[in-house]
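Give me the fold.
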Amino acid sequence: MRDRIRFSEPTAEPSGAGVLVTMSVRGLPTEVAVRLGYLVLDPATGAMIEDGGRADLPSGTAVQGAITVELPAEDGHYRVLISPVEEGVAWMHQHGSDALLMDVEVICGMPHVLELRNTTAGSRGIERAKRALQRALVYPFRALWQHHSLISSMVRRDIHGRYRGSVAGLFWTVINPLLMMLTYSLVFGVILKQRFGTGPDQDSPMNFPLYLIAGMLPWLAFNEALGRSPSAVLEHRMLVKRVVFPIEIVPVNITLAGLVSEFFGLLVFLAVLLGVRHTVPATVAYLPLILVPQILLTVGLCWFLAGLGVFLRDVGQFLVFFLTLLFFCTPICYAEPESGIPGALKSFFRVNPVYVMVRAYRAVLLEGTAPDWPSLAWLSVLGLGAFIFGFAWFYKSRKAFADVL
């Protein structure tokens, strides 16, 4: 590892259409030839615009260096990184040496220096970490906001296209989940005689269907979105290849389409609840607090699976098995087994995000209580983490989509 080369006393002044930068340079190696070089960068993304010229340094370990930076003729904001470079080997700032960062505004072809500062490897690392954190927190939400009108249009088209030509039309968004719930109610409630709760309503004929439907509401939206996500990009391959299209909104569309089905199911559920119990608990107001982490988790997983499905076509087949296993490992259609399972499995139920959602829905819709706040906090942290990681994975991998498709 080479010794660190240090800069000090940097100055910058216009020189024609460029900028003359001078500085004191210490710690130069004597066994290899080191020159000064610069890179012109995009300040917003850090992407390189131009690999600039080089300038020789006087011999010695402590010298006065100077380099003239030539900027693009187009007006705009540019960032220039000036660093020692060993030609054909490496830029020295990548090995711990100092580098100068200069922000320049080009107006009518003339450069105006905004800032010139010396940076160390540590300060650049902190700056990169801050930039990465900012991108992780801002880019996903900004992408959704920028394309919100396109997202809503595609969701409407998805819902209408799904049932185009059928007699019932959009009513299938309600009929399909109801038929599935009636099937599970028949199998588990009537044939297997499963029961929920311990109160006076336990033996009521409507007790099991209400608990089942309350648990199925988040599951149907979650299952539909994840089941479609591995093939989401494949189904829109022409948009990837031929059109400048924000492909990252496709997994969001299938998530929102699933939520539309859940919304209509929720309306039917509330109507049935009002008819059976003659009241709807005020704790329904807590539902948005559950929906936010649910949406973040679902979108994040859809982004990840959509990107992965482009490269591994078997993901969709495996996911069918995994979602079936997850459904039967979550007490949606059978009584909650907290008292009858080993301690190790209890821990699994507590961290299972689908179980957390199911319990929260039943608490606010049927039991008239607030959701379990520690479990909801865990779901929120998990959802935000999945949202950030899923977008980062999709954002990085989409550059290779056109080559694979």
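The first helix runs from residue 121 to 146.
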